[in-house]
Amino acid sequence: MLLDKIKKTIEALLFMKGEEGLSVEFFSTFMEVEHHEAENMLNIFLEEYNLRDNPLIIKKFGMTYKMLLNEEMSEMIKKAIVSKNLIKLSKASLETLAIVAYNQPITKVQIDKIRGVSSDSILHSLISKELIVSTKTLDTIGKPKLYETTEMFLDVFGIESLDELPKSDDISESEISKFLEKWEGDMAERLQKLIAASGYTSRRKAEQLILEGKVSVNGEVIKQLGVKAEPSDVIIVEGVRLLKENKKYYLFYKPEKVITSMSDEKDRVCVKDFFEAVNERVVPVGRLDYDTSGALIMSNDGEFINLITHPKHKIKKTYVAKINGKLEEHHLKILRSGVRIDNYKTSPAEVNIVKNKNKSGNTLVRLTIHEGKNRQVRRMFEALGYEVMKLKRESIEDLTLDGLRKGEYRVLTIHEVKRLINKAKNGDK
Fold first, then answer.
1. What is the pLDDT of residues 205-258, one digit of tens each?
2. DSSP string spanning 108-140?
3. Per CATH, is 189-241 categorized as 3.30.70.1400?
4. Residue percentage of the chain with pLDDT more than 90
5. Do 4-72 and 91-185 have matching folds?
6. Mean pLDDT across the stretch 50-61?
7. End-to-end alpha carbon distance in the chain
8. pLDDT value for 150
9. Segments making up each domain of the chain, as ranges
10. Which whole number is the average pLDDT over 277-289?
11. Which pLDDT value is given to residue 241?
12. DSSP 106
């Protein structure tokens, strides 16, 4: 049996590595163990994991392990993917698909000649979506691959055979446009949403940058809101090109005396300093005060960040506070009904006394809130006449700090991310 922490680490790495897979060599280096020990750990995890009633399974390919859908679930997904709502194709992908459809079997050189640009990545993407396939080669020097459409292509476009495609002697703008008209409407997103989703900044800040003329799409400066763009477009913000990043999600145990920011003008320690080994630029999801320790999510998923931090979604955060003196009963009732801070009354908090007036004369209080006002917990107690001597965020919803020490972080599992998203969207339903 593997320790729970090792199991969680392996699962997180498998999720993070995705299609690339987790190699024994990488895991050996990551865990600082011998190669054979790493392989043994992975084999044990594979056996235990695959015994679960789980839509995912672990498969070994040589010395690499991958997390995949089980056979039953894979077939269900394949059937579902025929819905156009689940297949999202860029304009470039649609153009390439149209060229293949009307000229199949066709080589990559021929495709590139028609499009005028290289189609390497697009062809790989279309193959992964099972819309095209390459099983034959042209009997010439180099034996180039021949590409043709699949049965999945027929299902997606709602036709029974290629004979139903509009007749044409050669590929033309009209044929390509038929593909575009059918699909591209689902692809475009508002520019500010794409910028936020990249992790560059918030949607509100993105809107401001657009209005200031600091954003361009395919070389054209955009100065008005409402413009739509596609992920495949060249989007430049403040001179920086947005790159599609792998989405990352971490739970971080923030120590005290650390700024919840990516930089600090006073050159104090920031949360960014703990994530130098992470290739992607992750940012704090919400905030924790300088003197407060505890659970903090870090991510580069702009949509996820906006969803989790929006007040209306009421994501619960649980704190343990050490306050001076004994917490009086009537103050406990006020906390549970709402505390007036300046011109604002907080929402009712879940409050329980952990330890009241121990030897030091202080009280430990556990409280759960869903708001995130600046220094809210401290100000709630200060309004009642108490000083918060120490404050720690124990959890965010069901995410706890178990297994983590101050300054450490772990990758959130796909299930944890989905639960947070579901909670934000659906509440307690």
1. 888 899 999 999 888 889 888 787 876 678 888 887 776 666 889 999 999 999
2. HHHHHHHHSS--HHHHHHHHHTTSEEEEEE-SS
3. no
4. 23
5. yes
6. 79
7. 36
8. 85
9. 4-72, 91-185, 189-241, 249-422
10. 84
11. 78
12. B
pLDDT at 315: 92
* Matching CATH number, 91-185, of 3.10.129.10, 1.10.10.10, 3.30.1340.30, 1.10.3720.10: 1.10.10.10
Q: What ranges in 184-286 are assigned the alpha helix state H?
A: 191-197, 203-211
- CA 204 from centre of chain: 19
List the structure tokens of 251: 């739970």
CA dihedral (48, 51, 52, 58) positive or negative: positive
- Mean pLDDT of the region 177-198: 61
> From start to end of 312-378, where are the E strands?
317-324, 340-341, 344-345, 350-355, 362-369
Token pair 């279309």: residue = 126
Could you give the CA distance from residue 323 to residue 160 in angstroms, rounded to a whole number?
Answer: 72
Of residues 72 and 242, which shows the higher confidence score? 242
Name the pTM for this structure: 0.47
Architecture of domain 4-72: Orthogonal Bundle (1.10)
CATH node for 249-422:
3.30.2350.10
Active-site annotation, residues: 289
Concatenate the DSSP letters of all residues of 367-399 into one string: EEE----TTHHHHHHHHTT--EEEEEEEEETTE
